[in-house]
Amino acid sequence: MNILNKYIDHTILKATATKFDIIKLCEEAVKHDFFSVCVNSCHVSLAKAEIKNSNTKVCSVIGFPLGAMSTKAKVEETKQAIKDGADEIDMVINIGLLKSEAFDEVYNDIKAVKDQLPNQVLKVILETCYLTDQEVTKASQLAIKAGADFIKTSTGFGTAGATVHHVKLMKDAIKNSNTKIKASGGIRDTKTALQYINLGVERIGTSNGIAIVTGKSSGEKSY
Question: Catalytic site residues (predicted)?
C-alpha cells in the first residue's frame, strides 16, 4: 500500500502528547515515508530536528482546535511556527464569526495567516461537524478567496470528523480553483482512506497512518 503513504499527514495533536511521542511520530513518518508529521506549534522545532535528512515535512496547526483566538494571536503563532521550521500550516477558521455571517472578518483572519507564508502551504480547517451545508460552502469559498492551498474538513476534536457528504460539498466549491481537499477525523483504515482518495481528496490527516498503509487495524486511536 505504499501508494497511500504520500497522502498521509501523520498526526498527533492530543494535549497529553509528550516529546517522546513526537519523536516516535517522526520516526514512524520517516520509516513509512509519509508526506508530513502534523503537530502542535510548540513541537515544530523538535519535529523538524527529528525528520531532517528525510523527505517528510513538518505541518503545524494554528489556532487549534477552536479557531476562536484573535487574528493577531494566529498570526504570531504562525510566525513562530515558520521560524521553527514548519513547511505547512493547518489553521482553524473562526467558526463563531462564520456563523455570525461576519464573512469579511473570517476572510481577513485567513488572509492574515496566508500573508505570513512566502512559500509554505496553507490548509484551512472548516470544522464541518458544526456547519450547515450552506456554511460549509461559504467557508470553502472564503478560504479559497484568501489563498488557501487546501481546505480541510476537521480538527479531529469536534463532534464528528470527515464525511463523504461534506467532502462532496467542498469538492463542488473548489471546482474553478487550484485549492485541494484534506480529509481528517475518523479515518482509521485503508478502506476509508481509499474512499476519500477516490473522491478526489489529496491529503489525509490521521493518527492511524501506519494502519492505513499496512492494512492492519490499530484500534480506536485518536488525535
Answer: 90, 152, 182
Given 90, 109, 149, 180, the catalytic residue: 90
Instruction: Tell me whether residue 222 is in a domain.
Output: no
Residue 125 has pLDDT above 50, yes or no: yes
Q: Which domain, by its residues, includes 36? A: 2-214
199 assigned to some structural domain: yes
What's the domain count of the chain? 1
Query: Would residue 152 show up in a list of annotated catalytic residues for this protein?
Result: yes
Known catalytic residue: 114? no
DSSP, residue by residue, 36-60? EEEE-GGGHHHHHHHTTTSS-EEEE
Residue 76 placed within a domain: yes
Q: What is the pTM of this model?
A: 0.95
Q: Is 74 a catalytic residue?
A: no
pLDDT at 3: 86
